[in-house]
Design brief:
Helices cover 42% and strands 16% of the residues.
Amino acid sequence: MYASQKVRDTLRLSCLFSVLIAAGLLATACGSATSTTFTAPKVRIWRVNQPEDVVKDLETDFLKNNPSVQFSYKNKSIDGYELSALKSLTARNGPDVWSIPSDWLGDETPRLGWLGDSFFNAETQSVSGGPFKPVDWVKQIYPAGIADAITLNGHVYGVPTGVDTLRLYYNSDLLSAALSEYRKSLGDNYNDEQYQPIRNLLSNPPSTWNDLVDQAKYVTAHNGSAITRSAVALGTADNAPDTADILQLLIMQNGSDIISTDHTRALFHIPTTTPAGVSVRPGENALSFLSSFSDPSKPNYSWNPSLPQALDAFGQGKVAMVIAYSNFGKQLKAKYPRFSFNIAPVPQISVAPLQTPVNIVKFWTETIPRVADNPALALEFMKAEANSANGIATEAGLASPFLKTLNNDANSFPNKQIITGKAVFKKSHDQFDQDFRQMIIDVSQNGLTPAQALDSGADKINKLLAQTDE
């Protein structure tokens, strides 16, 4: 186990002891059977890259109803955010409302309280004549992938505030330049029948991975062995963004889940049988395809570890396409404010209706630690935040988590991807993603076959999933 992981596990163990000492604190408000026995004068809110102005109106209304409460808001950087919170929670001065990324839930659930029946006014609802519990209610108000991610062990552990999804960033000028070069290459041999298919191919961003492969043959340019213009920053782990999630997306698009529904074992390396009776390994196919973009022997070779970071290559007009989350666009605008780019849906294996779209989502979710000093007040504030989630998402440049809002414009990007998206459950989330990146490195740089890298990666993921918080 890596040293950073040991530090995190030690802190989590310390937090767990604090949880056991303070077991009665969540009470009815957060799903416990006993009453709240301790009330603190403060309600502390921790969020990432969100100024207090975002919740200022909520804060004002909250303090009107609770004038004796001392309200504390911390706008933190993501760097060191988790460890800082764990240390503070152990010392009993951590957040009472803790905003975390959705892929931290697999690690932090033992330290979180769940939302009781009253949070969603569930007592006034019914389904098939029975009680309408929070686990049922969230399936009505959030897309399935989001509802599944916040529902663990039969309880709801968070309230989403803003959703993100992978998207394709592209430079239409480079696609046009590649088309112009192709037109010139035809010279006197030009004929419309030959030219129009390539014109159609390069006039739009790729909707399928096969489109991307075909585009790469025309967009990528070489000077000897050096790539002078790349079609797409894909196939490596260290100089392209969100590579672990892209590999996970490709595995799911190829027909495999990443892990089992009970979160105990890896599935992405296991063979499956097609309707035609053919045995395939979706994970191997995905890893082989992804690494082909960094393989000089492949016709779609477009990227390698010696090239600059994708953000700079894209901003400087050296690569036509990058797949990443919305933060890539924010960084791009900050560093290259005059650079113009477009975004499009992430490619699929086949377009609908041939295949149902498969997408990945990540989102921020508000949670309440079990050692919160005053969970009832924290829940009161978090309920107000839930009602204002659309505005909070907009301020963060993210999409609404509410299914009703998304369905109002269900065919737009990225709403369509979010409605069909899934969130990947991760254990030891940093190491989890590093193990997926290592698979890419093992194929692109270390000489392993996709099958070897996949089996090695699955073994590592299984060990992570077998770890317990105790």
